[in-house]
Amino acid sequence: MKTSLKDNLKKKPRDSAPPPLPAADLRKTILIVEDQAAIREMITEVLKSYNQFKIVGTAAEGQAAVELALRLRPDVLLLDVLMPGLSGIEVLRRLNKSIPRMRVVVFSAKQEPQIIRGLIQEGMHGFVNKNSSLSELRQALDKVSQGENWYNDTFSQTVREALAKPNSHADSMIELLTPREREITVLIARSHSSKEVASQLNISLKTSENHRANLMRKLGVHDVAGLVRFAVRHGLVDPSIDP
Amino acid sequence: MKTSLKDNLKKKPRDSAPPPLPAADLRKTILIVEDQAAIREMITEVLKSYNQFKIVGTAAEGQAAVELALRLRPDVLLLDVLMPGLSGIEVLRRLNKSIPRMRVVVFSAKQEPQIIRGLIQEGMHGFVNKNSSLSELRQALDKVSQGENWYNDTFSQTVREALAKPNSHADSMIELLTPREREITVLIARSHSSKEVASQLNISLKTSENHRANLMRKLGVHDVAGLVRFAVRHGLVDPSIDP
DNA sequence: AAGTATATGGGGTGTTTACCCTATTGACAT
DNA sequence: ATGTCAATAGGGTAAACACCCCATATACTT
């Protein structure tokens, strides 16, 4: 785990009392990604009331999150994991190559080692469980936006567990897949046939079938059932949100 | 990060114009029940900022909710459904006999007809999906606290569906399956083909196929991917232990 | 400049699925 | 005793799948 790198910007002490802002708005910009509208709006309201961050956008779903992030290039990305469409992990996979200075705080209801591991690999800087206190979310955003890392209490234990088995051969497997192949993995695990995948991605049936065969060979699975288990294991699909 | 209630008296008018309060606090009292701490605190903050309700308590879990409600006897109960321990429905079952004047707004991520039916039966007065706008939550609390009922848009349709089929789609869906069918569900979700299932259970291929078709029809799934997601969701297979 | 990876396309083949239909047996219930 | 349900077994069909072969274009790396 890395620790604070850039501390060059002088900041006034801030905790419970937001001081009057300077003429130029130097607050960190933040993009909020959360699928449930009411929760998303509440997060927005609460963060606004902190008067410490500038909310530059919100997204309800992964694909929009990617596009908004690329356009707005926020300082901080507050990211939910379980979403319909692209999962939080997929969002990071597509982003952290392009906006290296962006800091990422994951705000999730679940805390599965396998998924945590993936998130770390994709450059998450902070993790807050939805089950932990709101002040922790604030602190995480605070620390992470300043270049530090922040994880909640129960987290480091989970991380140790996750990192304990270094390359248990199944964990690293997802990296064998290309972005396109991961995309297709998700679609297959969501019950789309090769034909549906083809028309959805505007490619020929044969290309869809070829991708399918290739990714299955890479993963060492030989049927849809195995592929779905793999996808669930790695947070590519959420079995509790049935498409 | 708490704002004192007394301060509210001298604050300038906000968003939707709460008029200056009279000397006696006549605001409706509200008890918030939500298992995820961060979400619970956000709801509290946001409702506080409305300056329209008096939050008399919060609970993170069903049993505590019942006890608090009986002790505080709030005007309004804002209730989550999916919680560890007692579910929202169970809370209502134990309550609405004892505090008949209490109004109930359910705030839920899911909107399953079966659950809705139970909630109506137990005397819910308002329903807001977590996926709908925050303003709807406010409006629902507003209306319901004043004696009206309030349901979100998609709700009445769901209600009709729920009341249409009295007992057809069973509560947990998995109980629709016979033991034999559950057995076969597990095998399919573990990547066994119909032929393998047949030889493993010493039945003919055709019987295996018939069981497969029957259980899929019962569950409303149409492919292996959907079946695996179902099995994972109900703990029939563990995706992190690959067979 | 050559090599590698990725994404795109195609041909072909045998197996498996998903879904339609009917039918028999035994068990348990009204 | 009659009926429904569970489990067994079969016929048939169109689609999808799993796996093999191949080619081309583009991009990045060495």
Per CATH, the architecture of the largest domain in chain A is 3-Layer(aba) Sandwich
How many domain regions of chain A? 2
Number of helices of chain A: 10
Question: Could you state the order of secondary-structure elements of chain A as H and E?
Answer: EHEHEHEHEHEHHHHH
Write down the CATH class of the largest domain in chain A.
Alpha Beta
- Kindly report the greatest chain-chain contact and the residue count on each side: A-B, 50 and 44 residues
The pLDDT mean of chain A sits at 82
DSSP E strands of chain A, number: 6
What share of residues are in beta strands of chain A?
Answer: 5-15%
List the helices and strands and how they pair.
The structure is a homodimer of 243-residue chains.
Chain A: E1 28-33, H1 37-50, E2 53-59, H2 62-72, E3 76-79, H3 88-95, E4 103-108, H4 113-121, E5 126-129, H5 134-145, E6 150-151, H6 153-164, H7 179-189, H8 194-201, H9 205-219, H10 224-233
Parallel strand pairs in A: 1-2, 1-3, 3-4, 4-5, 5-6
Chain B binds a DNA duplex (30 and 30 nucleotides) through residues 178-181, 193-195, 203-207, 209-213, 216-217, 222-224.
Structural commentary:
2 copies of one chain form a homodimer. Chain A has about 240 residues and is an alpha/beta fold. Helix content of chain A is about 45%, strand content about 10%. In chain A, α2 (about 60-70) runs parallel beside α3 (about 90-95), α7 crosses α9 and α7 (about 180-190) crosses α10 (about 225-235). The interface between A and B is large, with 50 and 44 residues. Chain B binds a DNA duplex (30 and 30 nucleotides) through α7 and α9.
